[in-house]
Amino acid sequence: MVEPYVDGPEVDANFALLDGEVVFYEIADDVPSLGDARDSSVHDNFQETANLLPTALPRDEVEMVRRSILDSLKRMGFYNGTFHCKGRIRNSTMTYQRRNDVDGSWDLVSNHNYDPSRQQSFFLHEINARPAGYLESVATVLTCGVDYYALQMLFSLNDRERYRQLSQPFRKGPQWHLALLLIPEDRAGVMETPDTPLDLMQRHADLAAAIVDHNTVIRGGDRCFGPKASQFNYLADFSVMSRACRDDCLTLAQKFCLSYADICKPHLPRW
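^ that's the sequence the OP posted. Answer follows.
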C-alpha cells in the first residue's frame, strides 16, 4: 500500500457516541516513535513510545479533529458505541520536538513551518470500533474519570441512560497531566530482574509517588527478543502524573526513563 506521508503531529482520538451525538471525546498526544526521528536509521521501528494526556493542541485544532472524525464515523454508519481513532493533522500550528528545558523530552511546540494560507485538515489513519486499548483506557479513566470498558458493557446491555451518565468527565476537567510510557526491548537476552517496575519504585520513592499505574510485561526468566524481532514487545508500561503542570509531568517522565535505564544496565538482559 502506498499513501501520502503526513508529517503533522499524530494523535489518538477517542469517542463515545449515542444516537450520533458525541457524549464524550478526548485527544491524547501520540509521541513520535524512534522511526519518526530525523536521524533515524533502518534499524529504528515505529513502535509506540508514549502518550500524553490531556493534549497540548489548541482548541480549534481539537475541534477540527472532532468534526472530521465524526463525519467519517457517520458516513460509515456508526452512530453508537465507543471508538478509538488515529491520525495526523496537516498544517498544524504545533509540531513534536525535543525540549531542552525539560531534559530533552518530546513535546508539542509551535510549528515554525505553519502556513496560515493553507487549510488545516485531519488525515485519518484508522477507526477502531472498540474502546481504546487497555493502557490508554486506564490512563483516561484516571485522568478524566470516564471508563471506556464500562461504557462498552453498558451499551451492550442497552442501558443508554447510564451510558450517557457515565460519559461525563470530571466537572473541573482532567485532574492532572499524565504521561503513559511504554518501555521497549532494546536488546535480546533473558530478563534477570524479577520485577523491574517494583525495583525502580523501591529505589526511587519520589518517582513512585508519581506513578499511578504500572504493568510488568517481561519478568525475571522471560526471554527478550530485542528490537529486530518480527513481533514487538514491551518490558513494562507506566503512567506518570503531575498535578502541577505539563512541564513537570514531562520532567518526571524523563527522569523516570533515565532511572529505568540505570536499573536495566547491570541486570537486563543477559546475553
